[in-house]
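Hypothesis: this fold can be encoded by more than one sequence.
Test: take the structure tokens below, design a sequence, compare later.
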């Protein structure tokens, strides 16, 4: 497989999946203010990571299409991906379990914070794949 095309595509798809996972509680929980409290309860809100994910989509797509220096895009995508993963992990470990269990009767929300972390993993992996395809590693 060509890492110059596939790597950034994996990162871009990972960013889109990450954003979709962040939207999921708004579809599950009846009260949107409860979702705001859920996202604001951790040490750092995943909304910060969502902004990084939007930026990573632009950076990785520009590098893939050659509109910016691919090595710069791979490096920036890697930094953004690691930040997204770090913010997600920090948030998931610091949000109170009692708050998560009190959001709704649906059991889907109990594992949501770990789904956010899992959705963040392909972003830095795609950037590393891109960098390997460019022979930077």
């Amino acid at each position: 497989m060509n890492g110059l095309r596939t790597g950034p595509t994996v990162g871009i798809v990972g960013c889109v999946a990450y954003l979709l996972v962040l939207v999921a509680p708004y579809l599950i929980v009846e009260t949107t203010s409860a979702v705001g409290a859920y996202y604001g309860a951790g040490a750092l809100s995943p909304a910060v990571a969502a902004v990084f994910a939007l930026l990573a989509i632009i950076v990785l797509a520009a590098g893939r299409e050659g509109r910016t220096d691919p090595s710069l895009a791979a490096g920036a995508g890697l930094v953004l991906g690691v930040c997204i993963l770090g913010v997600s992990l920090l948030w998931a470990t610091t949000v109170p379990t009692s708050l998560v269990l009190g959001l709704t009767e649906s059991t889907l929300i109990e594992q949501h914070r770990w789904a956010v972390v899992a959705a963040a993993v392909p972003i830095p992996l795609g950037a590393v794949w891109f960098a390997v395809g460019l022979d930077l590693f």
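DSSP finds seven helices and no strands in the chain. The helical segments are 3-28, 32-40, 46-65, 70-94, 97-101, 112-120, 122-133.
Hypothesis status: open.
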